[in-house]
Amino acid sequence: MTSFGIDFGTTNSVLAVARGNSLETVTLDSPPQEWAALGFDKVLPTVIADISGQLAFGWRAKRSPQRLEAVKRLFASEESVELSGKSFPVEEAAGNFFRQIKSRASEAGLSLDQAVVTIPANSRGMARYRTKISAGLAGIEVLALVNEPTAAAMAYGTRIKDGDRVLVFDWGGGTLDVTILRRVAGVFMEEASKGVQKLGGIDLDQAFAAAVQNRVPSDSHLDLFDLERAKVILSSQESTIIPLVGGGTLEVTRSDLEASIRPLILRTQEPVRRCLADLSDPKIDHLVLVGGSSKIPMVQRYIREMLRLDVISGVDPMTAVAEGAALAAGILTGEISDYDFFVGTEHALGTVVHDGGVPRFSVLIPRNTKLPASATDFYEPVHDDQESAIVRVMEGDPEQAFEHEDNVILKEWEVQLEKRSRAQAGFSITFEYDVDGILHVKVVDNMTQLKLMDEQLTFGAARSKQDLVDIRRRIDQSSVLTDDVADQGAKESTRSGLSEQSREAVRRAKEKIYPFVDDSIQKLLDHQIESLLRSGPDGEVAARDQLEQTIRDHAYLL
């Protein structure tokens, strides 16, 4: 029996499997050799592209101009996304991506029907619900939604002893989450968590690009894909060369990178300090760094110096979250018995009441409550003979001011009331919160015991079950692009010693020409690119000349 964990990341996603006490990641894609050598061989870029009317994912999609990135960032605020001029629900975009994970697991001989899926520690109800729905639309039952920091800490297993406190600094592509957990009787209990919703590798890339842009000649421009790779390389080298679109190169140094991202790194101090301030005893025993952005040397130095702690080693920051999620799945399915684990609420949940006209957060389910959980409280309307009341679901921190950004109204309903005096028109509100992160809200008349409302908290595309059925049907019918010759990553890995001029020719062909031409030209390009990648040093120039001739024939697309 196998148990799966999925780290659905903003920029990269990872699938891990637990067999007994053995944890391993599953290869979902074949990156170009230069990226595989940088430790990206186990990740699937969270990118969707439309190439000639067909969907592409991962590394191939990452190079397409018609691509959709960072879908997870849209969960909290957007209803729909646009790709190649077509609009569709956010859940459908993410559902297609989860379906690709399931499909690639199947190609590896694995039946991915259930999984624990991770979410950022500060993920709101809307984002949690959409994550569950998106995975379900792909045919993956979500056993539980688990905080990424909790999953990361679990990946370290016995290295963190009972009673130890660990700070998980999770800085990935889209968000920064700082979480402090204590291990108690084998369970990681969250004690403090703060985060920044839009601060990650995407933002570091943009700051880096802005800093070096004035050094790019007017007849050339930067390719963010190459810039992102340069950022990764500068974690292990002092300098590197970036090929420019339009010709030429640009040398960048680690100093260039550090100067450009320093203001963003300094912003990580606030959530760390706020977490420590939440503790009566701020002593931390272990420091865990997770996410690609945390691999930057300047980031590691800054956090180590701030906390005066060394980083726990031995688990890849890129895969730790998925591995911990797979461990949690094994515990939930009963396959793993050496550890314990439970799912808890990340934020307090309650409703809004008015004291003398002033709104107040009335908590029903406190933060860190073990799920499943149920709570009921009693309320009265504001006025006598009131015909209706607005029931709001609020999530956040009751210790903050009501208007604080941490406090979010997730949904509201209007409930019809009998016209009575305030005392006689009272009603109860019950919250039932499941392990899968779905909240049920019931309202009952205190006098008659009649049920006034019984609703499930839903968002976005899930306005009705029929909406979900329609989306699932479209996902099932989606046309997915595959390579006829061989896996694209395998092609690129055949030859890693190409000159920069040849690599630039391949890049221009794939990005500027391939997505816009018919099948016959695509097959010609496939053949010419494969020939170039397989060419030896003596044949590289001739093979490149053939490819460049085809590029010139389609210069109107450049």
- Return the CATH class of the largest domain: Alpha Beta
| Name given to the CATH homologous superfamily of the largest domain | ATPase, nucleotide binding domain
Q: What's the β-strand tally?
A: 25
CATH topology (fold) name of the largest domain: Nucleotidyltransferase, domain 5
Counted up, domains total: 4
Helix content: 25-40%
Tell me the span between the first and last alpha carbons. Answer: 51 Å
Description:
This protein is globular. 43% of the residues are buried. β18 (348-355) and β19 (358-365) form a beta hairpin. α4 (90-107) packs across α5 (125-137), α6 (148-155) crosses α12 and α16 (519-534) runs antiparallel to α17 (540-553). Helices cover 33% and strands 28% of the residues. The strands form 7 sheets. Strands 1, 2, 3, 4, 10 and 11 form a 6-stranded mixed sheet that branches. A 4-stranded mixed sheet has the order 14-13-12-17, sandwiched between helices. Strands 19-18-21-22 form a 4-stranded antiparallel sheet, with no helix packed on it. The protein contains 17 helices and 25 strands. The chain has 558 residues and is an alpha+beta fold. It has 4 domains: 3-199 and 267-332, ATPase, nucleotide binding domain (Nucleotidyltransferase, domain 5), CATH 3.30.420; 201-265, ATPase, substrate binding domain, subdomain 4 (Actin, Chain A, domain 4, Alpha-Beta Complex), CATH 3.90.640; 348-462, Sandwich (Substrate Binding Domain Of DNAk, Chain A, domain 1); 494-557.
